[in-house]
């Protein structure tokens, strides 16, 4: 029987926190959703842990776009939800997604909260949510979801090493606006805390501006700190 919802989780070296993250998805599995974890070549125990806590575990070439496309291809559910490994869904996420996609929306995303009491990061969350509502562009941290038929029609995520979420949102917008759910997902503050809050904010602004003006996503990914394939 085709599941109503498939949650696709791309991972790379996430062993330290993956057990708790995947256990948090058990509530959705009990209600019929499938969880597919796609590993990009981890050097730790990520793959072992994923096999214990997911419905399906795959290997794919490193890169979120490549990994998410592989997960989507392996799980033809009515709706696909793409979840970063450091992001947590609200307990009723499956019902909210189903309600949105059974209505006028073919795709959408959640509002975001960064898991930190720091004022700067609360401000970042607020600005990300506002920007997303104004532009119709979703970030990967916002748990983007899309009807499977539309995902196939546009060819999935462009195979970019960075900014695949922006490129995907632009493609999806050609088929209608997103459902901007006010309920929040919670994402880890580790990216900002590891490299410095303001340094990370300014870096992301520069990278997004460079992408807008046509910079090579491969070079942007290197500047961001991703390892090239």
Give an overview in words.
It contains 11 helices and 8 strands. It is α/β, with parallel strands linked by helices and 229 residues long. Helix 10 packs antiparallel against helix 11 (217-224). It is globular.
Structural class by sheet pairing and helices: alpha/beta
Q: What is the CA–CA distance across the termini?
A: 36 Å
Q: How many beta strands in the DSSP annotation?
A: 8
Q: Output the CATH class name.
A: Alpha Beta
TL;DR?
The chain has 229 residues and is of the alpha/beta class.
Task: Looking at this protein, list some descriptive labels.
alpha/beta, Spore Coat Polysaccharide Biosynthesis Protein SpsA, Chain A, eight-stranded mixed beta sheet, 11 helices, 8 strands, 20% strand, globular
């Amino acid at each position: 029987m085709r599941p109503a919802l498939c949650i696709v989780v791309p991972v790379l070296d996430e062993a330290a926190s993956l057990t708790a993250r995947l256990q948090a998805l058990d509530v959705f599995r009990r209600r019929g959703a499938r969880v597919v974890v796609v590993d990009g070549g981890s050097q730790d125990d990520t793959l072992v842990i994923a096999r214990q806590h997911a419905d399906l575990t795959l290997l794919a070439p490193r890169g979120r776009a490549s990994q998410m496309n592989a997960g989507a291809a392996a799980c033809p559910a009515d709706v696909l939800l793409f979840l970063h490994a450091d992001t947590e869904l609200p307990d009723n996420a499956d019902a909210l997604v189903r309600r949105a996609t059974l209505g006028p929306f073919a795709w959408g995303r959640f509002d975001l909260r960064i898991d930190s009491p720091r004022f700067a990061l609360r401000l970042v969350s607020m600005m990300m949510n506002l920007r997303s509502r104004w532009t119709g562009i979703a970030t990967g941290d916002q748990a983007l979801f899309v009807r499977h038929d539309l995902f196939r029609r546009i060819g999935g995520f462009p195979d970019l090493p960075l900014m695949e979420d922006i490129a995907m949102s632009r493609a999806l917008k050609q088929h209608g606006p997103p459902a901007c759910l006010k309920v929040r997902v919670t994402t880890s503050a580790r990216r900002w805390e590891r490299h410095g809050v303001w340094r990370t904010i300014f870096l992301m602004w520069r990278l997004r501006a460079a992408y807008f003006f046509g910079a090579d996503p491969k070079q942007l990914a290197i500047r961001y700190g991703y390892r090239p394939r």
